[in-house]
Amino acid sequence: MSKKVLVLGEAREGALRNVSFEAIAAAKTIAGGGEVVGVLCGDAVQSLGEELIHYGADRVITVEHPHLKQYTSDGFSQAFMAVYEQEKPEAIVFGHTALGKDLSPKIASKLDSGLISDVTAIEGEGDDAVFIRPIYSGKAFEKVENKEGLLFITVRPNNIAPLSQDAGRTGDVSSVSVDITNLRTIISEVVRKSTEGVDLSEAKVVVAGGRGVKSAEGFEPLQELANLLGGAVGASRGACDADYCDYSLQIGQTGKVVTPDLYIAVGISGAIQHMAGMSNSKVIVAINKDPEANIFKVADYGIVGDLFEVLPLLIDEVKEL
Ligand code: FAD
């Protein structure tokens, strides 16, 4: 049976996040030839609708309200539920982002639905789709099927390839008007830490440092390498706890989960809690002076050496490319 699928797109600072396009691709697989409807919530998102259609949505519904300028679970759940009631889809897809992780259980409970969270791949399509998701902090993967009722999934960023952009694709962008009320939280101002360059969760290359980097200044060459490779800097909790960098860079079980094409771990031992956030990276390079370091168990390429000697050489090599 073909399905109508609602996909929540995410925008930040006036631009759609990549995970929105990845979620559309997942929705296409699930829809089995049915309709994929993008949903955008915000204070000014109407102009972004067309781009979702270029990436595969059949049509887009926007909900605009001043209270949706910043994400709150109360505001976004009211907005999304209004679209749900209008559309009555058979399936829902969110990104497994900070927003998606917060909002999806709330919506699932309102709809009395199950939730298949953190999907990293989909086998088959339509009613035969099987969802693959990590368990036990990424040590194993389980396959989950949804045989009846609403299908609700969240997709891990950087795992499902988006469809190629087709600027010639057209579709309807309409709006639903919702009176957003009874907010328990109103966010009037957001202070963002300024991070250089690329968003860590969506970066194709991550250069991550650990306690071995030894200081905040020690992170400067990591940033240089990340910039050269068009990537972002991440960190272990050890490095964050030692105040070498901000907690917003922490990767792992209690930090961000990343799946870049290339993960370079510098002076990181490879604790299980760290690996939970990066072990699915496509290629892992580890630099560590201890040949027994756990990180080498998941590394595709290992360099045993002093990072203060290896990193400058690596930077010089990359500059030559
Ligand atoms: P260390 O374990 O101290 O490793 C430093 C490494 O640097 C060593 O392997 C050493 O050989 C190497 N090194 C030192 N000097 C050099 C040099 N000059 N050149 C090359 N290599 C060098 N951790 C996370 O990262 N993310 C999480 O989300 C997370 N969540 C946690 C949740 C819980 C409930 C708990 C209990 C822990 C969590 N941790 C997490 C902490 C985790 O257990 C580790 O303590 C932490 O990951 C260690 O960080 P590290 O590898 O930087 O430091």
TrEMBL record:
Would the keyword Electron transport turn up in this protein's UniProt record? yes
Q: Which domain of life is it from?
A: Bacteria
Keywords of the record: Electron transport, FAD, Flavoprotein, Transport
Put simply, this protein is called Electron transfer flavoprotein subunit alpha/FixB family protein
Return the CDD domains for the record.
Answer: ETF_alpha
Source organism per UniProt: Sporosarcina soli
List, for all copies, the residue spans of the domain called Electron transfer flavoprotein alpha/beta-subunit N-terminal. 5-190
- What protein family is recorded? Belongs to the ETF alpha-subunit/FixB family.
Record bears the keyword Electron transport? yes
InterPro entries assigned = DHS-like_NAD/FAD-binding_dom, ETF_a/b_N, ETF_a/FixB, ETF_alpha_N, ETF_asu_C, ETF_asu_C_CS, Rossmann-like_a/b/a_fold
| Entries under Pfam families matching the protein | ETF, ETF_alpha
